[in-house]
Amino acid sequence: MADQIIGIDVGGTFTDLFVLDPVAQQVSILKVPSTRGEEARGFLDGVLRASPQVARIASIVHGTTVATNALLERKVARCGLITTRGFRDVLEMRRRDRPQTWGLTGSFTPVITRDLRLEVTERVLADGSVHTAVNLEEVRTAALALLAAGCQSVCVFFINSFANFGNEQAAVAEVRRHWPNQYVTASHEVLPEIREFERCSTAVLNACLQPVVGQYLNQLAEELRQRDFAGDFLIVQSSGGVMSAATASELPVRTALSGPAAGVIACAQIAQASGFANVITGDVGGTSFDVSLILDGQAALAAQTSIAYGMVVRAPMIQIETIGAGGGSIAAIDGAGLLCVGPESAGSNPGPACYGRGGTRATLTDANVVLGRIDASRPIGGGLLGELNVELARAAIETQIAQPLGLDVWRAAEAILTVANARMAGAIRLVSIERGHDPRKFAYMPFGGGGALHACAMLREVGVDAAIIPRYPGVTSALGCVLADLRHDRVQTLSILLADLAAHSLLARIEVMRAECEQRLDAARAPFERRIEAIELDMLYVGQTHTLSVPVSRAELTREGLQLAFESTYKKAFARTLSGIAVRIINLRYALVGVRPKFDLRMLAPARAIAPATARAPTTAPTPTATPAPHLEASIGSRKVYHAGAWHDAQVYARLELPTAFELSGPAILEQSDTTTWLEPGFAARVDDLGNLIVRKESITS
């Protein structure tokens, strides 16, 4: 019987798997090496190791970085653009921005070169009226010319197709009659929204990704089918929802930031189950530090993001800020003699110097190894990396950092961590303080292979209330794949005055959107318990440029209801309203969520608990004198760890063996196959009912 659910997140170093068996009420985790450039091989290796009997798998949910990596590395398909005469340079002109904000240097090369951006005769006006019908003969000639130029995919983008897609629809139909594959993108099918650059960029990036992501997903589906997999194959979207592999192949641009988004979804559910509604998440991977904010149990969604300069994607996605501060981030002395960490990374191959694969440059991981925070004989990944080489790490730091700065190797290594921690803290402040949130009212949830090594540093640097270290931090994104709901989003530009709104017309548009979303959900074939809809309107006062997203219910879809909803949202954002000024509705946004069956997160909890006499309330920080009797039994030894300019004897624990309600004080090291936790002196931790580690500063007693 097919009963297993597997979440898979493919990272740069490891492919992480979270396996749920709801019948047996068991979970397991697994890491296998990623195969960069051949991600499908690492994916399939992980599936076969996690469940040799593939027929037992009911569903596989995949968080993929294929789209993100393809865009960042410009390894996308050769693509052509067919557009309205006079608008071939929209993609290149952008918003008249520049790579260096305060300088006149820098350059930008669009993903489609100018010779592959062809124009045809057509014109729809902004009000939707057809000024000039599309010349289909020119469309046919352009399509054949792009094919002759070696294009694998094509995008059709007409200037005002958001208002009336008739011309664009006719052109796409003509292109598809001559195009040899399914990789044809129509801008109105991807983003029927005002603002020509954002729509053009999103549609073009979708077309460039279709062959890359489509071939990858088709290969996975075929390999799984050959091994008797008959379950659901789902892909995580940037919004944190999941969709069918077929939809992902059609709309691959919605999979950018797929993996990090899954991690945020897992953090939101774990934190809420643990009694924390407000959380800042921090994913420390091999190359980056990804930060997001969860408020009142909900991850913040953004309408658009930039994958890299000039590569704008306008689609619902979880707000994630990324900096180059991961385990492989390279430490170096810059031209001014200052120590820098990142954004350049050693990656997984050759990787940090301690990997012994030919890497010679000092990294954040090398610093953690040299200072004793990572046990070289037991690296994460269950030994997949083999034993780490401390001497190579020490030599790299000695020659590249310590000697130029006049420090000993230990202080140099700690300086690397100090700089990296400061950069991570800055990213946390960016998503909290700079957006009007007090970090003291939030908990911090680190995940990824390196997040738990820096948890106490973030508490010190930022002043968050506590740290919640999940049971399996290194596979949190894979867990998020299992937890994520099905979701499909639609948007339509209205651009009407609120005073002119006809409620019945708005409801009719919503019903059309709902029907399309329901079709997408049903096509995924995955079980879900119920449907939830979300309606938002992008609104502004007449004369303003930027909109506010106003969430509304169906009961509020009247002029009076929408006026009150807009004023309430506006007042929350700006502490005032502008009476007497008309309100305009720009866009209608609709999302339909298929809520998937949830498993009880208590399945992650330790199998045993310590005696009630030693247990504490989860909101009370352990004191240094409260060391329960099982303390010595749980420790598996001790080792020297360098911290704050001195060596400390740190107790070492097998974290997954610690019982519920167990308490400990730093300095301590907690090891598990997917990560290592460093508990600094002056901090205490407690294992909660879900197996999370709740870390706070110790109480000071007189």
Description:
The structure is a single chain. The protein is of the alpha+beta class and 702 residues long. It is 30% helix and 28% strand. The chain has 17 helices and 33 strands. The strands form eight sheets. Strands 13, 14, 15, 18, 21, 22, 29, 32 and 33 form a nine-stranded mixed β-sheet that branches. A hairpin with a 4-residue loop joins strand 13 and strand 14. Mean pLDDT is 89; it is low at 612-632.
State which percent range the strand residues make up: 25-35%
User: Helix proportion of residues, in percent?
Assistant: 25-40%
Rg (CA only): 27 Å
Summed up, the helix count is 17
Give the low-confidence spans: 612-632
Biggest beta sheet summary: 9 strands, mixed
Euclidean distance between termini CA atoms: 61 Å
> How confident is the prediction overall: mean pLDDT?
89
Total count of strands: 33
Shape designation = globular
Give the class from helix and strand content and strand pairing: alpha+beta
Write a brief structural summary:
The chain is of the alpha+beta class. It has 17 helices and 33 strands.
Write the layout of secondary structure elements.
Elements: E1 4-10, E2 14-21, E3 26-33, H1 39-50, E4 57-63, H2 66-72, E5 79-84, H3 90-93, E6 117-120, E7 123-124, E8 130-132, H4 136-148, E9 153-157, H5 166-178, E10 184-186, H6 187-190, H7 196-226, E11 232-236, E12 242-244, H8 245-250, H9 258-273, E13 279-284, E14 289-295, E15 298-299, E16 301-308, E17 311-318, E18 321-323, E19 329-333, E20 339-345, H10 364-370, H11 390-405, H12 409-431, E21 443-447, H13 455-462, E22 466-469, H14 476-483, E23 486-497, H15 503-523, E24 530-541, E25 548-552, H16 559-574, E26 583-595, H17 631-634, E27 635-643, E28 646-654, E29 663-665, E30 668-672, E31 675-679, E32 683-687, E33 693-697
Parallel strand pairs: 1-4, 4-11, 5-6, 5-9, 9-10, 13-21, 21-22, 28-30
Antiparallel strand pairs: 1-2, 2-3, 7-8, 11-12, 13-14, 14-15, 14-18, 16-17, 19-20, 22-33, 23-26, 24-25, 24-26, 27-28, 29-32, 30-31, 32-33
Helix pairs in contact: 1-7, 2-7, 4-5, 9-14, 10-11, 10-12, 11-12, 12-13
